[in-house]
Amino acid sequence: MPEPTAAPALAATRPAPAARPRRPRAETVAAYGLLAPNFGLLAVFVLVPLAGALLVSLQRTNGFGDGEFIGLGNYTRLVQDPVFWQALATTAGFTVVVTALSMALGLGLAVLMNSVLPARGLFRSVLILPMAVSGVATALIGVLVFDQNNGILDKLITAVGLPSVNWQSEPVPAFATIVLVTIWWRTGFNMLIYLAGLQGIGPDLHEAARLDGANAWQRFRHVTLPLLGPSSFFLVVLNVIYSFQVFDIVFVLTGGGPRNATNVLVTYAYDTGFVTRDQGYAAALGMVLLLLAAVFAVVQWRASRTRDLVE
Amino acid sequence: MTGRLARLGLAVVAALVIIAPLYWMVVVAFSSRRELLGGDLRVWPRSFTLENLERVFSSFPVVTWFGNSLAISLVVAVLSVSTSLLAGYAFAHLRFPGSNVLFFVALGTLVLPIQVIMVSLFRIVTGLGLYGTYWAVILPTAASAFGLFLARQFLLGIPRELIEAARIDGASHLRIFRSIVLPLAKPLIAVLFFMSLLQSWNDFAWPLIALRDNALYTLPIGLLYLQGQFGSDYGATMAFALVNVIPMVVVFLAFQRYFVAGLTRSGIK
């Protein structure tokens, strides 16, 4: 008699073969039951609207009524729209600058908070405090601080003899304000993630590097930084996602001005959809946002897979 | 020794940069209008006054807006904790067809800006008759991808043997969820609850679209409305900003370790 192959042998370890088909089915039913509340909400309020958005993006609309199907009309209009290209460039610039600066600052502060320091807990609490402040309040504090006629920052700048800056009426300073306010708001989060990463690194490696004659910078560059790889990866993903979706700060602080200099894709889409009420075109803008998010998600997914292989 | 002093100096500068704008908000909120118009730089208001707060409370339904914010964020937090826990348990411990695809779909919503779907979401909310009620804000924000992810990560930490043993004893999944998973998940529940409370309390983009009725405004939307009405009356704006900011700052400081635990857990695989 030929011996049974691996598969039946595995099955034989199950106590009651007759009950086998029933149990997985019961487990599947239970699983779908557990998922139902979450995915019910997701389906009605995210997935169906997503399909709806695709349809609306193919229509010319008038207010909130039914639209007229115009194929790719909104998309050809998009390609010829200079405001769209400007918003795309601003979004990309904002995402790169904010991600780089807030991560570098977060890393520096995490190293500082991981060192011997009096009142470390207090400092840490202060640095993460902006996380509790709403985006609208943050932006309004920004309005107050950066007011170009009566703001506290301008007074400080002129008090030390520097020329005053037109924070609201000139494009580059206006862009700088949304960057600075966002960095103020977000850096604490990056610090916290990096701090957790740092605390996971044992002292042995540093000790070994020190014995080999590595100085502080070399130890940071060749021991700490590589070991923080997973934290850095996670933070790049989250910072890109959040910067790319920046809305509260821009909407309240600059309203996208002056002359669209701070208009990003999400504020442009909002204005188009709910201020000028050009819903079809707004939906097409949304589809571009979706495409960008999807491309980023795929790139990040592949990067994380190669990471796992390397590590 | 000098290294230590330099580090302390850096930490103080960083803390000042974070605190200064918040401190300035408080100073402006309690400075009289005249003093603010005078425009001198002061570290503390010469005439400490409550007139800004009084003006805000008498001109706007601040108490109603506060109540709206509280009601909406509490309901969102409860719903989001419940849905995340149930789904997180399924993804962590049950085997079923489509689990990978479904998990990927749920996580995918994390990268989806609300502006992608706002137009058609608005139509659906209106079509369901939710527009003009709290539910217009609550239901679309109650399923949290981040919460689901966090719940799954945490619940993977419960030993599979424990659940298998209960299965062999004949316990149903709902029973296991209630008597094994829930008691072990208390720290997770705290993290999820405070995170979604904070997020919902501060939420802006969708409530801005979904709440057109003044009486239903939450604090962030009310804050924007007030700024539109009062323009450059910084005293009033900052006084009201304090009403929005202080409750969550207090909650945040009191339950900081939960936030910190939740965030750092999400970063570590």
From TrEMBL, chain A:
Key words of the record: Cell membrane, Membrane, Sugar transport, Transmembrane, Transmembrane helix, Transport
Give positions of region: Disordered: 1-22
Q: Which Gene3D superfamilies does the protein's record reference?
A: MetI-like
Q: Where would I find the ABC transmembrane type-1 domain in this sequence?
A: 88-300
- The residues that cross the membrane are 29-56, 83-113, 125-146, 172-196, 225-244, 280-299
Q: Which GO terms describe its biological process?
A: transmembrane transport
Q: Does the keyword Transferase apply?
A: no
The record describes its membrane topology as: Multi-pass membrane protein
Q: Where in the cell is it found?
A: Cell membrane
User: Chief localization class?
Assistant: membrane
Q: Which family does it belong to?
A: Belongs to the binding-protein-dependent transport system permease family.
Q: Which PANTHER family match?
A: ABC TRANSPORTER PERMEASE PROTEIN, DIACETYLCHITOBIOSE UPTAKE SYSTEM PERMEASE PROTEIN NGCF
Q: What is this protein called?
A: Multiple sugar transport system permease protein
Q: Which organism is it from?
A: Klenkia soli
TrEMBL record, chain B:
Instruction: State the Pfam families in the record.
Output: BPD_transp_1
Q: Where in the cell is it found?
A: Cell membrane
Protein name per UniProt:
Multiple sugar transport system permease protein
- Family classification: Belongs to the binding-protein-dependent transport system permease family.
What's any one GO cellular component for it?
A: plasma membrane
CDD domains from the UniProt entry: TM_PBP2 (cd06261)
- Biological process terms in GO annotation: transmembrane transport
Bilayer disposition of the protein: Multi-pass membrane protein
Question: Which chain regions cross the lipid bilayer?
Answer: 7-30, 65-89, 101-122, 134-155, 176-198, 238-259
Q: Mind telling me which InterPro entries this protein's record contains?
A: MetI-like (IPR000515), MetI-like_sf (IPR035906)
Species, as recorded: Klenkia soli
Q: In which domain of life is the source organism classified?
A: Bacteria
ABC transmembrane type-1 domain span: 66-255
UniProt keywords, alphabetically: Cell membrane, Membrane, Sugar transport, Transmembrane, Transmembrane helix, Transport
Q: Which PANTHER family match?
A: ABC TRANSPORTER PERMEASE PROTEIN MG189-RELATED-RELATED, SN-GLYCEROL-3-PHOSPHATE TRANSPORT SYSTEM PERMEASE PROTEIN UGPE
Give the signal sequence positions. none
According to its UniProt record, where is this protein mainly located?
Answer: membrane
